[in-house]
Specification:
Largest sheet: 7 strands, mixed
Helix content: 25-40%
CATH superfamily of the largest domain: ph1033 like domains
Number of strands: 17
Number of domains: 3
Length: 459
């Protein structure tokens, strides 16, 4: 099966309007496109992006037979062409998912006529469209945390027992089994929406964290999440009429008289979650807070390749720690040649070395380097305190530095709370400044000098 890119000028043909009404169109056939091939339609300015994926269902037609005349603006280049094909719409792409600037980095040449899709470009398109599928497949949840918000927020997770004291299952705990990586969760604490989070990984079985009350059974379900705390929360009772209209019909968070159902985790949906986030955005005081909330709704933060690699490093570090016993790490900061860039998810990225990250945690004795007394727990596999590695100068900026950023001098050990606060918190700059002061000299010795003002601009 061949794959092609063809060009449409919206000043000549309104293909967007056509596909809002029709599923099939005729197109002039000037190449060796075969029946069954895939054809991507690139729409020129003002769009400047691939907007449609189609399939060729007929070729070598002598004339165009589908009536789309109301969408033809200038048909002089189309009429009496001599050979036509019929295209069937498969997918629509929006929001600049496949823009020209990104396409040209992966093999799309000047957009002038039909061209074959190269292997590199095909890989990029598949990666981008799989991201779209993940966003479209995202599920939404609503959690009541009146008993456990502080502990769960500090640890960056949700946790619920599998069974009650009577050995019976509860639907609001069983709902945990439906949470997957990338899902969005609305957090309620005494009738206030205090946080929004995105699941960092699929749900998994986990013993009850020690900091949670022992009134629950030990065996449970856990979801690690990226919390974004809300400085000015909305109160659910102020919006109950709208929430009652939007919430799901099954396993909804609120009962028929507008009170929260007794339980922990409930279903939400896109409409309800969008309403809550948009209403929350409206009462925030800074543009940064508003943008961060809207980015969570669009699932941007966890969809960037760099964030994905950072999260994978955190997820996989147990593997290294279990085979690398805690020990004193003799590290002398010095310049290290950066690794070669790789193409990952349609972007140029740089690899992370799990052993170097583990060394950085061992250097800090697995304590939080913001404050050693910050709470943690013991890793199951390595029996060390749980801490997360964080690159002070983000790896996304490696291309601007001649020497490697993936060195112990640039990796700090943090508790989950501080790590999340750096990425999402209102006072992130203060934490970054604290870390900068700790490592400024080592960064310079490692050949990656940077001033505080420049560093803050990278976040």
């Amino acid at each position: 099966m061949g794959k092609w890119v063809i060009i449409c000028n919206p000043n000549e043909y309104d293909v967007v309007g056509t596909f809002n009404v029709l599923e099939n169109i005729n197109w002039k056939q000037s190449t060796d496109i075969q029946k069954g091939d895939l054809v991507y339609i690139y729409v020129t300015k003002p769009y400047g992006e691939i907007k449609f994926e189609t399939k060729v269902i007929e070729v070598n037609l002598k004339e165009a037979v589908i009536d789309d005349s109301k969408y033809v603006i200038d048909g002089s280049n189309f009429e009496n062409y001599g050979r036509y094909m019929e295209l069937q719409l498969l997918k629509k792409f929006d929001d600049g998912l496949l823009s020209y600037d990104s396409l040209k980095r992966f093999g799309l040449k000047a957009v002038q006529g039909p061209s074959r899709v190269s292997a590199e470009l095909e890989e990029f398109i598949l990666e981008r469209t799989s991201q779209l599928k993940q966003i479209n497949d995202r599920r939404y949840f609503f959690v009541f945390q009146n008993k456990s918000y502080d502990e769960e927020y500090s640890g960056g997770y949700l946790w619920a027992p599998q069974l009650g004291e009577n050995g019976k299952r509860n639907s609001h705990w069983d709902e945990m089994k439906n949470v997957k990586k990338g899902d969005l969760i609305i957090h309620s604490f005494f009738k206030k929406i205090v946080a929004i989070s995105v699941a960092k990984r699929d749900v998994f079985e986990s013993e009850r964290p020690l900091e949670l009350p022992d009134q629950w059974n030990n065996k449970g379900w856990r979801v690690d999440t990226e919390y974004f705390t809300i400085k000015n929360p909305i109160i659910t009772s102020d919006h109950m009429n709208e929430l009652m209209k939007l919430q799901p019909t099954k396993n909804a968070p609120f009962n028929r008289i507008g009170r929260g159902n007794t339980g922990y985790l409930f279903s939400s949906n896109k409409e309800m979650s969008e309403y809550i986030i948009n209403e929350t955005v409206a009462v925030q005081k800074t543009d940064n807070e508003k943008k961060a909330l809207l980015d969570l709704l669009k699932n941007k933060e966890n969809k960037t390749i760099e964030s994905k690699l950072d999260n994978e490093l955190i997820d996989e570090i147990d593997e290294v720690l279990s085979s690398l016993p805690t020990q004193e790490v003799n590290y002398k900061p010095e310049p290290k040649k950066r690794s070669e860039a790789i193409i990952n998810g349609g972007n140029k990225t740089y690899p992370r070395d799990k052993k170097i990250a583990a060394n950085a945690l061992n250097r800090a004795k697995h304590n939080c380097e913001i404050e050693e007394t910050h709470p943690s727990f013991i890793r199951r596999s390595s029996k060390t305190k749980y801490a997360e590695p964080h690159h002070i100068i983000p790896m996304a900026n490696q291309g601007s530095f001649d020497n490697s950023l993936d060195v112990e001098a640039n990796i700090i050990s943090l508790c989950s709370n501080c790590h999340n606060q750096i990425h999402y918190g209102n006072e992130a700059a203060e934490l970054i400044e604290t870390l900068y002061k700790k490592r400024r000299e080592e960064l310079a010795q490692a050949g990656i000098p940077i001033c505080l003002e420049e560093l803050l601009k990278l976040y």
